[in-house]
Design brief:
By secondary structure, the protein is an alpha/beta fold. The protein has one domain: P-loop containing nucleotide triphosphate hydrolases (Rossmann fold), CATH 3.40.50.300. It contains nine helices and eight strands. Bound molecules: guanosine-5'-triphosphate (GTP) and magnesium ion. The site of magnesium ion has 5 residues, from helix 4.
């Protein structure tokens, strides 16, 4: 993790690494509270801006249940009017990037308790091995989440890009077991419209984003995008932001004021070639015992955007089909 040391500053307890030239006047360096020895290993100092680098007009001082419910209502409203059927969202990303955890976080929010709908676990290779199609519930009832095996950089490891492409096109059945050595032969397989993906969310681990591996990951993604011909219906979620900022770890409401988080968002923007406002930093519900409404907000802002993109894509497709007929 030396690259993080260079980018985010020293792991050593104490003052944040000061970039040259000195930070602008409006930046207010905050020093993390001294931590115990065990915490130190995985903690990074940060600088908190006075003004947010991303502005949500309605968000100032509103990190509460009411705002969380408002976002959930918007998500339900956007997806309820979709025609035909439900909104299919697929999580794609490197092994262990947090794809399944992100889906579980959405269920935790809507069920108001820690939920476990997708299999999550620590593993060298991908923990998710089959195509897991998980229908949403409650306010997410018009959404279906598609969880897949993780991408690995080596040849014949991790999910095969052709399998992702087939799954996105609705040609793989739920429960399909991914085989890194040989993708499914889908020639002649009918497309199941109800499984076609309307929005792809790339999931990337905040600690991984600057590393070399993500650069080679980028090559795999380019390959995938050429196959999928996906357009604006794709976005990025950066997970594990709690691992790159002590301050945000302690207070998630500082997420849009954190220099470290802005840097990973910028980097994800470049890696995936999407506009900055298509990149959403989140902290998943992984070690919490209960839901805390302020922690829902970044996750729901991301999901709301996915529903907007998915809805736009569905609408565009309908217009195209009408033109053809
Ligand atoms: N600290 C922290 N850990 C996270 C976060 N999201 C996921 N994790 C952890 O990262 C590990 C991998 O998470 P998964 O959700 O299984 O990742 P995945 O991308 O589905 O992994 P595969 O299915 O193996 O490809 C687990 O140990 C999670 O608890 C997060 O936001 N913060
Ligand atoms: Mg998984």
């Amino acid at each position: 993790m030396d690259f993080l040391k260079n980018i985010f500053g020293s792991r050593q307890r104490g003052r944040a690494h000061q970039p040259q030239p000195e930070p602008e006047v409006e930046k207010q360096p905050e020093e993390p509270e001294p931590q115990d020895e065990n915490q130190e290993e995985n903690s990074y100092s940060d600088i908190i801006y006075e003004n947010s680098w991303r502005k949500y007009g309605s968000l100032e001082g509103e990190w509460d249940k009411k705002y969380s419910d408002t976002l959930l209502d918007e998500i339900e409203k956007t997806t309820a009017k979709l025609n035909p059927g439900k909104l299919n969202i697929m999580m794609i990303g490197q092994v262990q990037s947090g794809k399944s955890s992100t889906i579980n976080s959405f269920f935790s929010i809507t069920e108001e308790r820690i939920a476990s709908r997708a299999k999550v676990g620590k593993s060298e290779a991908s923990y998710s091995l089959d195509l897991h199609v998980i229908p949403g519930e409650g306010k997410l009832q018009h959404i279906v989440f598609h969880d897949v095996m993780g991408i690995e950089l080596g040849e014949k490891q991790g999910v095969h890009i052709d399998d992702i492409s087939s799954a996105v096109n609705g040609q793989l059945k739920p429960g399909y077991k991914f085989n890194p050595m040989a993708p499914a032969n889908v020639q002649g397989t009918e497309v199941d419209e109800s499984l076609m993906i309307h929005c792809v969310i790339y999931i990337v681990d905040a600690e991984n984003i600057f590393s070399e591996t993500v650069q080679s990951f980028q090559t795999k993604i380019k390959d995938l995008e050429n196959k999928l011909k996906i357009g604006s219906n794709r976005m990025v979620i950066v997970t594990k932001i709690d691992n790159i900022s002590n301050i945000v770890k302690d207070d998630i409401t500082k997420i849009f004021k954190s220099e470290n988080i802005e840097r990973v968002v910028e980097s994800a923007k470049n890696t995936f070639g999407v506009p900055k406002n298509y990149v959403f930093p989140v902290k998943n519900y992984t070690d919490e015992a209960e839901i805390e409404h302020f922690k829902n907000i970044p996750l729901l802002l991301a999901l709301r955007q996915a529903t907007y993109f998915g809805a736009d894509y569905m609408r565009g497709k309908k217009v195209d089909n009408q033109k053809k007929s």
